[in-house]
From TrEMBL:
Keywords: Heme, Iron, Metal-binding. PROSITE patterns: CYTC (PS51007), PROKAR_LIPOPROTEIN (PS51257). Pfam families: Cytochrome_CBB3. This is Cytochrome c. The lineage of its organism: Bacteria, Pseudomonadati, Bacteroidota, Chitinophagia, Chitinophagales. It comes from Flavihumibacter fluminis. Residues 100-189 form the Cytochrome c domain. PANTHER family: LIPOPROTEIN-RELATED (PTHR40394), QUINOL:CYTOCHROME C OXIDOREDUCTASE MEMBRANE PROTEIN (PTHR40394:SF2). Residues 193-215 have a biased composition (Low complexity). SUPFAM superfamilies: Cytochrome c (SSF46626). Residues 192-215 are annotated as: Disordered. It comes from the Bacteria.
Length: 215
């Protein structure tokens, strides 16, 4: 047998053995958890993992607060009766809005709130339109005495979680923007201009029930 035949036989044997399904000597994996990762459903209870002693529920670590989250409000949210206790929340914005912040907050109000509560905050937005619009019930008049007597924290709570037919705007507005919205409403109620000192309205009476809803 000449040299070329020997080389051909060797290559053929190697090729044949490499196509075999039998792995008599499997390779060693340096990081098997990376090579054979286990899929984890974030919003699933993952009972299979828990059965193996792996506690994964996608919840944040107890006692921690996300960056930018209202710490005091988080504490209130974990208690019962948050709509009533929200009256104790104090607006962290100690001054009235600057002209720049006022303009931005007004823009956010018209985008998110004006269609119901109206550009004048009188509850007569396009959806109601003096009863001629598609919305049969008049939204809350935000410059009325009822809302004037509502605590800042309760207004913030209503914007965050919604109230009655009004949905939550927590995904639309950051906590700071929601507090700015509270300031904007207060300034409109009092006919104030940007830059004036803020008035502490956290001493307002706690809400008695659904009658003090935002909408």
């Amino acid at each position: 047998m000449n040299k070329k035949s020997i080389i051909a036989v060797v290559f053929g044997a190697v090729a044949f053995s490499s196509c075999s399904d039998v792995k008599r000597t499997p390779g060693k994996i340096y990081m098997p958890d990376m090579a054979y990762s286990r899929a984890v459903e974030t919003y699933n209870d993952n009972r299979e993992l828990q059965a193996e002693g792996i506690n994964y529920n996608a919840e944040p670590v107890a006692g921690t607060v996300a960056r930018g989250e209202e710490v005091i409000y988080r504490m209130l949210k974990d208690t019962t009766g948050t709509y009533v206790t929200s009256a104790a929340l104090k607006n962290p914005l100690t001054n009235r809005l600057t002209e720049e912040d006022y303009t931005e907050t007004e823009r956010l109000y018209l985008i998110n709130c004006g269609i119901c509560h109206g550009s004048k905050l009188d509850g007569n937005g396009p959806l109601y339109n003096d009863g001629k619009g598609p919305y049969p019930l008049a939204p809350k008049n935000l410059v009325s005495d009822e809302i004037k007597n509502m605590a800042d924290g309760t207004i913030f709570h209503s914007i965050t979680y919604g109230k009655n037919l009004m949905g939550s705007y927590a995904s639309h507005l950051t906590p700071k923007q929601r507090w700015m919205m509270v300031q904007y409403i207060r300034m409109k109620q009092n006919g104030e201009t940007p830059g004036a000192a803020a008035t502490d309205s956290t001493t307002a009476a706690a809400p008695a029930g659904a009658a003090t809803a935002m909408k």
